[in-house]
Every structure is written in C-alpha cells, then in structure tokens.
C-alpha cells in the first residue's frame, strides 16, 4: 500500500517567497477544502517589487480557486484581471492596468453577490481619463479635528444585486491605492452621487 500524506489543514497561509515557483512547492500540500485566505509576501528586507512568476499556475491550483481572500500586493502580477473575480477580497499590484480592465472590475462588482474588496496598490491614475470613464469624482478629506490625515477621490455605483449596498471606488492620493469596495448605503459620504 502506498503512503499518501494527508493535506495540511489550515484556513490561512502567509508565505514569504521570492518567486511564485516557491509558493507552488507549498500550496498544493494544503487542504483546498479548508484553506480560505492566501497571502504571498516578499521576504523581510526585500524592497524591490518584482513580477510574480508562475502566476497562471498558481491561479489554477484548487487551493487558490477555492479561497475567498488573496493578497499578492507585494508583487507585480501580469494576468487577466477577470481571473481574480471569484475572490471576496483581493489585493494585487499591476505594473500597468488598462481602464478597460478597471471597467471590468466595476461591472463585476455591480453584478456580484460575493465581491467585497478589490484593491490595487501603487496605481498611477490619469485623473482626466479616469473621470471620462467613471464620471466626476467626489474629493474627500479624512480629518482629525482640523488636521487633514489624507485625501481621496470617491465614486459610488449601484450594485444590481443589493438594495442596501453600493460600490465605492476610492483612490487614496498619498499612497496611490485604488480600491473597489462594497459599502452600506448609510456609509456613503455626504453630497456623493450614486451612479447606475
């Protein structure tokens, strides 16, 4: 009789890897039915952002397909944005991403029942082109007393699958993070327009 190791059962894995090929040596040994959260980080002290090799093979693993949370934000990824739409929460970084891909994220959110957060780190926004596609932004400042902590641009869109929630697109200027997030209607900032 051949010995077959039992998959390691964990809901969360946080791997420090230099390359995606290293993650491929570990992820297949985790129980896909139990694993929900996957985070791949660069080793301590590594500052340079590199492309995550083997991204296509990683995304094909059952462990990744069945997970609900994925954080690859310390690497660049070069793959179709639609491959991340099955996650509830995803944090990624693209060296470049088209407005068409961002429209696809918005459309997926407005028709999804499960997507909660899609965050793009270090996004280089062309404000004029972005507003041509998504409409005029609401400029918003988060304050503590009179001190401005950080400034953002916000857009809101109806979610067709929910009457109580909307899609908030939020761009934090200081850190250049673009986030698509499901929020309660009560949390929409004052004077905001909720678009179709």
Keywords:
about 20% helix, 2 domains, globular, alpha/beta, single chain, 5 helices, 10-stranded mixed beta sheet, about 200 residues
- From the alpha carbons, calculate the radius of gyration and give it in angstroms: 19 Å
Separation, N- and C-terminal Cα atoms? 61 Å
Net shape: globular
Mean pLDDT across all amino acids: 95
Class inferred from helices and paired strands:
alpha/beta
Domain DUF38: 8-135
Protein name: DUF38 domain-containing protein
Give your account of this protein's structure:
It is built from 5 helices and 10 strands, in the order βαβααββαβαβββββ. By secondary structure, the protein is an alpha/beta fold. The protein folds into 2 domains: 8-95, no CATH class; 123-196, no CATH class. Strands 1, 2, 3, 4, 5, 6, 7, 8, 9 and 10 form a 10-stranded mixed sheet that branches. α4 links the parallel β4 (89-92) and β5 (117-120). The mean pLDDT is 95. Residues 8-135 form the DUF38 domain.
Quick structural overview:
By secondary structure, this protein is an alpha/beta fold. It has 2 domains: 88 residues, no CATH class; 74 residues, no CATH class. The protein has 5 helices and 10 strands.
List the helices and strands and how they pair.
Elements: E1 12-16, H1 20-23, E2 37-41, H2 55-60, H3 62-65, E3 69-71, E4 89-92, H4 99-111, E5 117-120, H5 127-134, E6 138-144, E7 147-158, E8 165-172, E9 177-184, E10 194-195
Parallel strand pairs: 1-2, 2-3, 3-4, 4-5, 7-10
Antiparallel strand pairs: 5-9, 6-7, 7-8, 8-9
């Amino acid at each position: 009789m051949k010995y077959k190791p039992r998959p390691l059962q964990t809901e969360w894995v946080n791997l420090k890897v230099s390359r995606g090929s290293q993650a491929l040596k570990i992820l297949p040994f985790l129980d896909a039915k139990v694993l929900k959260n996957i985070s791949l980080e660069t080793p301590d002290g590594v500052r340079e952002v590199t492309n995550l090799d083997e991204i296509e093979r990683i995304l094909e693993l059952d462990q990744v397909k069945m997970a609900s949370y994925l954080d690859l934000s310390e690497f660049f990824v070069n793959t179709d944005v639609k491959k991340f739409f099955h996650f509830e929460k995803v944090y990624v970084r693209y060296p470049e991403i088209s407005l068409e891909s961002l429209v696809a994220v918005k459309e997926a959110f407005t028709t999804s029942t499960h997507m909660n957060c899609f965050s793009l780190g270090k996004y280089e926004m062309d404000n004029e082109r972005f507003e041509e596609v998504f409409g005029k932004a609401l400029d918003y400042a988060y304050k503590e007393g009179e001190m401005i902590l950080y400034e953002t641009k916000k857009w809101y869109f109806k979610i067709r699958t929910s009457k109580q929630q909307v899609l908030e697109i939020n761009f934090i200027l200081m850190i250049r993070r673009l986030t698509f997030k499901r929020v309660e209607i009560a949390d929409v900032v004052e004077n905001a327009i909720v678009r179709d």
